[in-house]
Structure formats: C-alpha cells, structure tokens
Amino acid sequence: MERIGVAWGKSGVCMQCLVILVALSTMGRGLVETEEFMSDLDLPIPTAHVAGVVGKKAALPCDTQPLSSDDGAAMVLWFKEADWEPLYSYDIRGRTPSQPKLWSSPSGFGSRAYFRATAVPAILLLDNVSTADTGIYRCRVDFRNSPTRNLRVNFTVITPPNRPVIIDAKTRDHTRLLEPYDEGETLELLCEVHGGDPRPSLIWYLENTVIDDSYEQQNGGVTVNNLTFPSIGRQHLNARLICQASNTNLAPPQAKLLILDINLRPLTVQILNKKRQLSADRSYEVECKTSGSRPEAQVSWWKGFKPLRKKAKNFSDTNSTTSILTFVPEAEDHDNQLICRAENPRVANSIIEDSWRLNIHYVPIATLKMGSNLNPNHIKEGDDVYFECNVQSNPKANRLAWYKDSQEIQHNASSGIILSDQSLVLQSVNRTASGDYSCLAHNSEGSASSNPFSLQVRYVPTCKLPEVGQVLGALKAELIQLSCIVDSNPEPSNFEWTISRAGDQSEIPPSLYRIKGKISVLNYTPVEDRDFGTISCIATNSVGRQETPCIYNLVAAGRPTALQNCSVLNQSEDSLQVDCLEGFDGGLPQVFILEVLELPSKIVHANITSNFTPSFELLGLDKGMSYALNLYAANAKGRSEVVALYTIAVQSPDKYTGVSSPFNLSPLITSLVAMLALLSAVACAIIIAVYRRQFIRQHVKQPPSTNALYSDDSVESFPKKDNPPTYTASPKVDYSSQYELKMDVEMDDDPDIIPVQFDKKPIDEYCKSKLGLEDTMKTNQSIAVANNGHISFVNRGVTARSVDISASRHEVATASRRVRESCI
Asked: What is its main location (predicted)?
C-alpha cells in the first residue's frame, strides 16, 4: 500500500481525527447543505502532506472511517483548492458499497484516478503523476449520520533527475573510460547530472561504500561531483565505481556504473634453473617465469647491459609468462650478470628482474708480451730479455709451458734460461735466440697457446761466405767475381772493399761493386804480378761494424804438377794399393784421380777421386786380368801430366784348364793370333782418338776461364745490366783482344813462384784424352775404394762417363769449397 501522509499538530493531536469527530457529530442531521458545507470550509482543517513522483503512482489519503460503528460514509468528494472544481466523487448513497457511483472530472484526473474505499485510510490512487498534479487537495466525506468531514492534502510532485554522466576530469572525454587505468595511477573523474525537482544529491560509491558525497549544485539545474581517488591498486581490479543521483525515496536513484580495468605490474620473476658453473662455448637452455602482470608481461634477457635478442622463446598462460633462452656463454662472460627482466610496458616503473652471476669455466686465454721496459726493435746480442705470459682462466691454470718455435723451453739457469711463475728470462742472448716465442696454459677445460712473439736479436755482420783466409787462384787478365755474403740483423747498410798489394792497402771505390741485401759482388781482374794479394770485405749495419772481415787470398794459379814416386803395393788376387807423392798444386786446392783400365781392351774399370792424399786402394779386381793405372792431379785451372802404371795378372790365362777345344793349335799360332788382336785394338783406339780430336776442334772452342768463386743457391744473380765496372788491377793494359795464356813465359817471369815442369802438350790433348772417352764397357760391375773412403761404381761393357776431370769442365770437390775446372 502506498504511504499516506498524515498531518500532526504541534501537540501531537491527530488533526484528521478531529475532523472525523466533527463529521460524526453532524452525521445525524442528514445531508449537508451547500451553505453548511461552505461554512465548514472556513473551519481549520488538518493537512496531510503527500509526495508523488512524475510518471509514477501517487496515493492521496482521505480518512472515511466513521466515529461510530453504526455510521458510514455516504459520499466522498475531492476538490483542488486552486479552483474549487470537483475532481472526483465516490457516491454510495442508495447503493451497496460494492457498487458505488464513481465520477472523475475529464479536465482533472480523468481516467487516472481511482478511489479505494476499503483501504485504511481510504486513498485516491492517481496514475502517471505529472507536475500539473502538484497542489493542495481537499477531501470531503459525508456520513450517513455524522457531520461532514474535510481533510486537506498537500500533494507535492517530485521530478527525478536524469541519469548521471561520468567523464574523465583531465581530458573531459567519455572514451577515456573505455581504456584501462594503470596500477598506482590517481583517478580523477567528474560525475554530473541534469534536472531533478527538488535538486538531487550526487554521491560516489565504491561497491557499497560511499567514497565521496561532496556534490555541488550549479546553475542550469546541473549537479556535479568531482572524484579524486589516489593510487588505485591490484585490489581495485574489476571493482564497481558508482555515481548515484537521488532526490526522493519514492523512486530508485539514478546511477552510472564504471567497472575499473587496471594495467598491473608483474609481481614475480625468477630464473628457474641456475647452475653453479657453465662451460664456455657450450649451449644451455635457461628458463625464466614471471606472474602477476595484466596484460601479459614482456620478458627480455640481458647479459650485463647488453640485450640478448632473437635467442629466447616466450610462452604465456592465464596469469604467467615463461621464457626459455638458448644461451652459449663465452669466456668474457665470467663473473657477468645474466638478467631476466619482466615488464608491463603500459605501466610506468613496472620493471622487475632476477639476476644470475655467471661462473664460466673456459680454456685459458694466454697473452704473451715482452717486458715493459724493453724495446723489441733494439734487442742485440748480450742483452737480457724477459717475457711475461698473462693468463686468464677459470678454473686457475695448473700448468704453464714455454715454447720457442715448436720446441719446448726447459729451465736451465746455467745456460741463462730462467722460468719463474709466468715469466721467461733469457740472459745474454745471442743470435740463436731469435725465433717465435709462445706460452701454453692448461686447466681442466683444456689447453691454449698464446700469441706468438717474434724475437729478433740484432747483431753485427759476420762473414758467412767465403771463409776467412780462402785462397783463390787466378790467371792474369782473368775476370774474378768475388761474392761477399754476410750474416747480420738488420741487413748491412754499407760494404767496404779493400785490397792489400805488396804491403800497400787501398780502398776499392763503391762504384766498382754492387750491394743487394746481405751480398756484395766485386768484379776483379789481376793484370800484373803485383795485382795478386789479399782482398777484404767488411759490412756495417745499425748495430755496428763487422769485426772479422771476409778475406780472399788471390794468388797466381796454374795447373798442378804430375804425381811423383807412384808405385803399386800389396797386390793380391782381387785388390791392390797405389801410393804417390804430391807435386806442386799450382797455387790452388787440388784433387787426385786414379783411372783403372782393363788390358788389352782399355775399357775403364774404375775411376777414383781422392780429395786429400794420392793414395788409392782397389778392390774387386779380376785376378786373371791385367790393368793400366793412370794417375794425375787436378785443380780449378786444369790437370797435371798422367803417370801410368801397369799390373800383371796374378794367374796367367794360359794356365787356365777347362774343356778341350776341338781345334788343337800350337802355342806359336796362338801367340800370333793374340798379337794380331792386340794390334787391331790399338789401331781402333788410335782411329777413335783422332776422330774425337777432330770433332772437338770443330765444335769446341774454349775461351779464357771466368771463375765464379762461389756458386750457391743463396746467392741471387744480379742482372747483367746492373753489373758494376770490373775492377782492373793495372788499367794501362788493353785486353780488348782475346787473352791467351802462355804458362811457360809467365812462370819464368815470376820469381816468387817455384818453377815446375808443366805438361807441354796442348790442353786439347787432355780434353780429348783416350782415357776419358765414353767407350762401351762390359756389364760386370767392380767397386774401387780409395783411402778417403770414396767408392765409384763402374759397369763393364757399358759406356762409361768421362773422368771426373775431363777436357771440358770438371767439378772438383775440395775440403773447403767446390770449384769448377775449365780447360785452359
């Protein structure tokens, strides 16, 4: 039942009750006349206050209860005091209460009104209340026996406000409310409502709790309430924020609801599988998990301050994110931080992280350097050198080794090699200490070598070739090319050539020799006897000047003389020994040659060279054969005369017994046949020799010898166009024409050289000697061994090579050097 307003006096007396009492007292007089009714209006009437809501139902009370039980209402009439026109009537006069006569003014309530007489008190129900219904109404009740009762109703129509509107106070934008707020952010919201009579209240609620009721009524019927809600947090996620406008209890309040959507920071982040140690250059999977972020957190990996991109995969579920990193640690990562970082990029200061200090085991990293106070470009012989090996390793290196090139260095204090901890000391180094040095460190992860450090020990030049005091033989007007090769570091910056002749020493002008690296080449031509002497070469580099010069003893040279007192000793069935005495060597180193020829065929059986003494031992001889032994000496200028010896077969061939021949010849016939065969062989040999002599004369024309005193692969050839002028001892002599050597005159004119008897034969005789012919030899092989142990293999019946020293050029191996013979 709708509430009915009842007016009460100040003394607490019910004013309606008084009206009812008055009505009951007049009820017995019958119907009230108009005059009486109008007079009754002047009487004080109790007033009831009733409120209604626009568009809703309202109930206007009217107390129709009689004062006595035998009385009752006969008619109820409603007026509006503004115009005193009847609005509604309820008439039961002459009718049963269940069939009253109802009337409603069409210009008044019309069909909106309905009187409910059975209610206590009775009420006039009014539908769809409008603001025009506001006013003071009077209800007149006529009783059958009691006097008329008048009641006043002050009807107030309430106009509810419109629905409130919530906007963002900062941006004044409605759409901002569609976006989530950030955790920790301060909400600044404005709620406003239009209309309402009376003016409504405007209150903010968080769920069912009032958080702000400080509204403000502005002009134009607008009521506003500014809400400031600081630091919203995780607990406010999906909470209901309500702005409610209300001006009556008769209708529900108007409200606007906002459900809070909040971006949340991640709560936790953790690296799950931390290990005590990792090995460098191996692959690992590291897992990190974070939770509490809304929306899902972004997970990133960092190595110190360096991000690790494109190496992790992230997986998200309802409230957490898992990231798996494929990580390959490096040696330099040791003691670094591996960081897993979770962040909600929509929330400021939302980064949280978990770190892992890495313990990386790695192969040692060794770095070799020379002592800080040493200059590697100025190390010279006699200096002390030390190296430092800086080793970085985890775990600590348990072994350190030192190497020079590929050879391990051992501690040897007596030799000036000292190893201590991580340093190597080399005391008083020499040139042999040059090379690449390195150190090698080892731990449980493996071994590693350091960078190589090249040590170059600088030293003054020393003579490499030729040897000090080398004797060189030369003929007058013969061009001699002297090559001075030194060993030095760095390369020489200068060479000096000097010549000492007959106690007079003079420098050779630099324009007459050339320099290339460590080699200087001088062309020298002796012309007179006094041009022979000592030539010296001295090199200088940045370290110093060569102490011992390279010396060439240049002497007038010729062919050696013949061997003397040659004899066959200790002949047996298959061996014999030949000894001779040396003759004059011609001023040059000489070698000794023994040629063994079988008789009577004169096939070369063996060719033996002795570098030291003219002593030979022959093995593997045929006891049934006789041999011719040719002995001679040779040097770079030619060979001596041949000394011939003959051997006798140990067992005569005529004593040979075997199967009897079918031809029985007498000894005289046999001797004649042998003589004829011998003469035929001699004739054939002479013919062949003559033929070969003619052939050599026609095809070989030997120029004067030009000796390259040193020939080695290490000596680089200079271009001919760069050759300096040839140093000529006596430039007054003209050698434009071909020089011819006359040994007999030269030797007679030289008082310092002991005269010897040289071979008077032309040199072509020796170049075409029958002993050096490439004759056909037998296939049987013999071995001849000289005293010096040199072994020659000769095939019988096969063409033999020319003798070691032939008419053309012959290679003579001496104890000190190798020279090339020319046929002069």
From this structure: membrane
Topology, domain 459-556: Immunoglobulin-like (2.60.40)
Contacts by residues 528-531 (CB-CB < 8 Å, ≥ 24 positions apart):
528/476, 528/729, 528/730, 528/733, 529/556, 529/749, 529/750, 529/752, 530/501, 530/502, 530/729, 531/476, 531/501, 531/729, 531/730
**Statement: the pTM of the whole predicted model exceeds 0.70:** no
Contacts of 671 (CB under 8 A, 6+ apart): none
Q: For residue 288, which of 310, 263, 313 has the smallest C-alpha distance? A: 313
Given a contact cutoff of 8 angstroms between Cβ atoms, the answer to whether 204 and 225 are in contact is yes
The values of phi and psi at residue 33, to 5°, are -75, 165
DSSP state of 8: B
Bridge partner residues of 104 (DSSP): 88
Q: Is CATH 1.25.40.10 what the domain over 362-452 is classified as, yes or no?
A: no
pLDDT tens-digit series, residues 522-536: 988 888 888 888 899
Rounded Cα–Cα distance for residues 554 and 748 (Å): 19
The DSSP letter of residue 778 is B
**Structural tokens at position 572:** 């047996």
Chain position carrying tokens 């957190």: 297
Tell the residue number behind the tokens 């997970």, with chain if given.
299
- For 740, the token pair is 């011819």
Helix ranges (H only) for 283-379 are: none
Cβ(702)–Cβ(494) under 8 Å? no
Structure tokens of 466? Answer: 């030729």
Q: Give the pLDDT confidence of 453-506 residue by residue, as tens digits.
A: 999 999 999 998 666 677 778 888 888 888 899 999 999 999 999 988 777 888
Answer left, alpha or beta for residue 768, where phi above 0 means left and psi between -120 and 50 means alpha. Answer: alpha
Distance CA 465, CA 455 (A): 25
Q: Which fold has domain 268-358?
A: Immunoglobulin-like (2.60.40)
- The total number of residues shown for the chain amounts to 824
Find where tokens 């494929």 sit: 326
Q: What DSSP element (H or E) covers 693?
A: helix 667-699
